[in-house]
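Protein in question quoted in full.
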Amino acid sequence: MSSPKDFSLEVTPPIDTANVESLNLLKFTVKDKKNDIILKNRPVILFILTGTLIAYISNIIFNVNLEHVDISHLSKVQYGFILALVTMIALVSLRQQPEDTMIVMKGIGVQLVTKKKWRFQNSSQSFIPIKDMIDLVIHEGFHKYGQVIFYLCVLTRSNDQSGNDDSNIIKVIFPEFLPRRDILLKVWKLSRELLFGSPNRYWRRVPGQGLKQVLS
């Protein structure tokens, strides 16, 4: 069963295929179309939680001063409530919009950035210079429970000078979302045009030298 994959693609600057060659940089961002309720209402949520925390602590301090009670005698419920409020404030503050980004730089290469849902999760970032790129292609493969998907990837050459083709590496683009083929096709077409200046690239294996581009 296929997943909804209700994602949006943002292209910066807005572009069409007619004027790609006049640009030096394109940024593609894939994110969920649905607005995260927490992010959408974060200022209000933080205001309520922070206000509640301040009011609660102020009330405790007032009662301690009024009744001359040692603050160490606070109940576990009071400590637990304060800890819960602090935890919720921290989690709301650490929430961010998950997204996959590819920045294509003409004649230089591509920058791949993946942001997770939480700031404390490791976000990945990598740069692929154009000299290490073989091609930008759309592949078909299996994902999770045998679901057939399309994915965009960069075929790269290893820095190994032995000419061993087995050392070639595949870099998946948009790994967090794996968007549908219509988005992949648009990104693929615009990216290849900007990177290589032509939609056609041909390669052949040269004995002892690995893959070599054939100019047409």
